[in-house]
Q: What sequence folds into this?
């Protein structure tokens, strides 16, 4: 039995947008960035059990017991009122999963799956659990053909990547900005580790795709796009580059006043990157 535990915000039993094929996705709670543009801001922090959300729950699914907020999933209506009122972008509905819990879930859905993806929040903030889970999947005779992917913001040091890559098949990595000061504004952190992670993962043959969020007047300027182009070209013009478009869905706070990214502008940028030589630029299929 493996005793590693993860704090999980949500489980998707099937997803076709979180890596190759059909995947079971674990969204792990907690992030080391604080992006105003985040469309899942309730995954950023861990609950401090202040209790502010308890009275807002219309079904009584939240109770305070011995200083801890407890969530009863059986009577939760998923109205998300608790997420709206939380002052620190946390989530009282998290669940603790052991490696064995996840393996049982994966086994149940195995006939329909190509693999498993850990996302977030920032998945790598729970790296020990990821290593334990992926190691267990690779060692299991009935599961070892499933691929194990990580969706990451890249803020993980080189040595830590080295500890998880032997059991990882691929990583989807976000680059929020190339200009360092802009990256700090958009995430609260510098981008040196992110860029180093992208290079390290590429060298290791584990960089499945790079993702870049286009935000009007912030990350869609000529200088940023030039650096994006040069960065991908230096790695490999065939590398998959997924352009995402900033929208208001799920966003909280000041970023709701930022303009949203229009399809025509995303397509124009994609065409320009392709015309300059990038061969695998992917644009969003929906804009919400
Ligand atoms: S989820 Fe937020 S509001 Fe609710 S108890 Fe935790 S920190 Fe407080
Ligand atoms: S989503 Fe939150 S507020 Fe709504 S019923 Fe569930 S626990 Fe209560």
A:
């Amino acid at each position: 039995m493996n005793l590693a535990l993860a704090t999980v915000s949500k489980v998707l039993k099937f997803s076709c947008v979180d890596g190759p094929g059909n995947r079971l996705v674990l969204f792990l709670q907690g992030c080391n960035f604080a992006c105003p543009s985040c469309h899942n801001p309730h995954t950023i922090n861990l609950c401090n059990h202040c209790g502010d959300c308890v009275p807002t729950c219309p079904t009584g699914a939240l109770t305070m017991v011995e200083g801890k907020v407890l969530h009863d999933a059986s009577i939760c209506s998923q109205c998300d009122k608790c997420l709206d009122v939380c002052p620190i972008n946390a989530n009282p509905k998290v669940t603790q999963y052991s490696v064995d819990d996840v393996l049982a879930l994966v086994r149940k859905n195995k006939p329909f799956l190509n693999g498993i993806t850990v996302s977030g929040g920032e998945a790598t903030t729970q790296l020990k659990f990821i290593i334990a889970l992926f190691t267990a999947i690779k060692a299991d005779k009935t599961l070892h053909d499933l691929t194990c992917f990580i969706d990451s913001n890249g803020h993980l040091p080189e040595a830590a990547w080295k500890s998880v890559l032997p059991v990882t098949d691929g990583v989807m990595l976000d680059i929020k900005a190339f200009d360092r000061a802009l990256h700090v504004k958009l995430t609260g952190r510098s981008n040196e580790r992110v860029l180093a992670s992208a290079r390290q993962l590429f060298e290791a043959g584990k960089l499945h795709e790079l993702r870049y969020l286009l935000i009007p007047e912030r990350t869609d300027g000529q200088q940023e796009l030039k650096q994006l182009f040069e960065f991908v070209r230096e790695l490999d013009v065939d590398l998959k580059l997924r352009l995402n478009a900033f929208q208001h869905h799920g966003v909280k706070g000041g970023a709701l006043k930022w303009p949203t990214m229009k399809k025509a502008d995303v397509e124009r940028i994609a065409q320009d990157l392709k015309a300059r030589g990038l061969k695998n630029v992917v644009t969003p299929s929906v804009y919400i």
In short: The CA atoms of residues 103 and 140 lie 9 Å apart. DSSP finds eight helices and eleven strands in the chain.
